[in-house]
Amino acid sequence: MYRFVLFLLLLTAVPGYSQRRIPLEEAIGLALRNNTALKVSADRIQIADARFRQVKDRALPQTSASLQAARLSILSPFELNMGGPEPAFALPPTSFWSTIGMVSAGKEIFSGFAEKSAHKSAELLAEASRLDAEKDSREIEYAVVASYYNIYKLMQSARILDENRELLLRKEQDVKNMLREGILTSNELLKIQLQQSNLELSRVDVRNAQEAALFNLGTLLGVETPVAIDTTLKLTDALPDQLGDLLGQAETSRSELKANVLRIKSAESNLTQTRSVLYPHVSASAMYLYLNPNKNVIPDRHTFLQAVNLGVSVHYSISSLYAAKGKIQEARLNIDQARHLNTLQEEQIRNEVFGLFRSGISAREKIRVSETALAQASRSFTLTESKFRNGLLLSSDLLESQNLLLQAQLQLLNSRVDAQLTYYKLQKAIGNPVH
């Protein structure tokens, strides 16, 4: 019996630690600002944005400039004959300095839609990373709410234990009086005292679980100082909506499904980018050349040569007709995989929403049954206590009745807290803010 009571108390003991009192709304805000997991999500967003910026940078014209000074040596004489008696041009063996400068710029005008699709794919993935961060925020928000309510459950359990312990202290005094009058034996007093010891052991376990829960709550919130929760937390009998409405909202509001749609579009853009090798590529270029047969960059007189080269080139890879089939097939399979993963996640979300919807209905029924059981246990304890006071029952009967009352009190507390957490979890499952 006592093991069952202790099991009810420790079943939902969640992490946290003590002293600064933090309301639930403030706790959620602290977690969203300080939690390390959300900082990792923010890092992923920045990385995705950086990759998007890289794609945009690669679309800019490629420019370069160079300047070279070299000493050229002609080792043997050179003559250019045009059929006349004298060479048209001759260079004796000599050495001289020269300066060569060049500035060039080039841009691919048409890349087979690769540039546009790469830009779109990177942009979609950056947006998907933001939706992933939104999902992580919902998870952290629910973790704070669940931790908060479970700590509240532990605190209320401790209060119920204390009340029952105070009740036993009063009964102990009654038994001592009845013992002096010879109505009861000392064995009846020992049973009362043993029950007190068992309740005290349960109280110690609950207190330790509560301190551990509060410490872990502080870690979740990203605060180093000990924290405490708001003890005025109220439990509401929240009712779930119609199942069809919940499923429809989950399909349109869940950030995971929105991110999946973007990833499917990104995979389609990657296919377009992969197929770009099947198209001719057109590029434009411009180059300025400076040649000066002198080591001085700025010569004393006009002895340098300048040239400007403007051009358009067309390139087509014939090998892409037979060498790109594997890459194209992989890109198509990536689209299929993204669609299948989205379908799988839709099924999982539907199952999750349906399960939580049924859990909400079950939780309300458990509350109703627990309230009835508590009323019955309270009435039974009142009658048993009256008979015990009149010497008609033994202390073992009184203790058994009190255990049933304690179980009913704890069961009603657990049912109410679990119903509240089921409601919050359902809100997360359909894509709503948790609290």
UniProtKB/TrEMBL annotation:
Cell compartments where the protein resides: Cell outer membrane
Keywords noted in UniProt: Cell outer membrane, Membrane, Transmembrane, Transmembrane beta strand, Transport
GO molecular function, one term: efflux transmembrane transporter activity
Gene3D superfamilies: Outer membrane efflux proteins (OEP)
Superkingdom as given in the UniProt entry: Bacteria
GO terms for cellular component: cell outer membrane; efflux pump complex
InterPro entries: OMP_efflux, TolC-like
Main location: membrane
PANTHER family documented for this protein: OUTER MEMBRANE PROTEIN TOLC
Family according to the record: Belongs to the outer membrane factor (OMF) (TC 1.B.17) family.
Protein name: Outer membrane protein TolC
Originating organism: Siphonobacter aquaeclarae
Biological classification of the source: Bacteria, Pseudomonadati, Bacteroidota, Cytophagia, Cytophagales
